[in-house]
Amino acid sequence: MTGATPTRPTAVGYVQLSTADPAGWRSTGTAWAGLAGLAGRRADELADGAAALRTGWSGRAAGSAGARLTGLRTELTALVPAAVEVDQVLAGFSARLAAARARLSSAVALAAATGVLIDRSGRVRPDPARVPPERAAATVTPVATGLRDALDLAGAADREAAGRLGQLSRDAAAGWVVPPPPGRPAPHTDPARVRQWWTGLSTAQRRWLVLHEPELVGRLDGVPAADRDQANRSLLGIRREELRARWERLLARVPRGPAEVAGLRAVDAALTGLDALATRLDATGSPRAYLLGLDVGGEGRTVVALGDPDRATGVVTYVPGMTAGLDDATGELGRAARVLSRCADLAPGQETSAVLWLDYDAPDFLHEAARDGQARDAGEALHRFQEGLRATHDGPPARQTVLGHSYGSLVVGTAARDHGLAADALVFVGSPGVGVGHASELGVPPEQVWASTAPDDVIRLTRPPDELARQAVLGASPVGTVLDWLAGSDDERWFGRDPAEPGFGGRTFPSGRYGHTGYWDPANPALDGMARVVLGR
Predict the structure, then answer these.
(1) Residue 462: pLDDT above 70?
(2) CB atoms within 10 A of CB 28
(3) For 504, how many CA atoms within 13 A lie in the half-sphere containing its CB?
(4) With a threshold of 0.85, does the pTM exceed it?
């Protein structure tokens, strides 16, 4: 290449990508999701209308009318997952388009900084006033490569979205749903086998299962995120109605004893959390949320991904700690979102996904958090979920990180110790110990075990149970004061060695003085630390 010879234009239009609007495509997808909600409501209205007709109308005409209403309701119900799928496709296209535009912006910035000119066709050439001929090739090539990568990504995203929407249209014309053959995986089936079973079904059979057996599809690790999302979103309204019915039953009990009052409070909290979660699921902004699990029993559980984990190059699974429940799921999801946002800041052209994994019974009180039983109970489910992420991922394997906060770090450590985790890195923040004495016991390379504890985190006050008993006996004496000081200098926590101490054998990143819950504060360097681990930096 010489200074007078421009590079060939790329296949996808430079101007087209530079003026594309990812947010517009995202809004279009959200409108389709709104259509799904409308179709569901109309289907319920038809069911109510048919029930009312049956109470005062009989005969052949009534039978024909009832059959017709049933058919219409079936058609409307079948439209719900299809409309959600359109939203998924357009959200994915929007995300990849945004990533392509970020790469384009980086290439344009590099061109401006190094003296490379870009014309409206995407051709690049050195600016003769700034770049000597002998430096032309070395200067232009990185810019040309960046432009080509951005435009190739946009073109691939466009072809994929068009293909999926075209297939959706053809399926609707040819036969929307077809019952699958007998046989269903049990809830705890190995995710790789679930994935094999699911892949062996036709598209119409998979749609039938999403439509008619959402409870099965929504909870099966090994079913792709998009299909689980469709199933669980269809269950969301049903679960809301179940909670409201439970509320009415408890409200009708007069007089109310302590159990009824506690029940009303629990249902009210769950309804509040479910309503907030539904609002987040309906949000128009990016990243799109995928509902991968929902349970309104007890204090409620949920699994929500921000961004499609099956397409991302990096996925972080966040396990919250004490008091986490459905009532504050959106608050915990906000923490995952802040890690994802910082990843976007550090690597704007890379697709990442953050998952809130709240699929265990988190302790509510200190006496519960002082035991590891709830962490041990959660281990197998977390193991299976991570295996499912591996099984359903498209393309090259994603970098998978599992992040645990407070008691959630014990959940992660216990799962890694007892069952193994499909993870490339583990991160512990504000940890009371992770159930092992050394990073090498967690099943990942010790250099991929990361931890941080804020200087003012109250978790630093925790000590092993036998140490606390010793301090209780000696605390009133002068020697007890010395022992207190010595205890404060060791690296033992309630559930084993502090993973943020050198003796644990892992690696650390710094945190500012933001207390036990401030690791996600935008000004805290710990947020950068978590994001860099997710990105593998």
Answers:
(1) yes
(2) 16
(3) 31
(4) yes
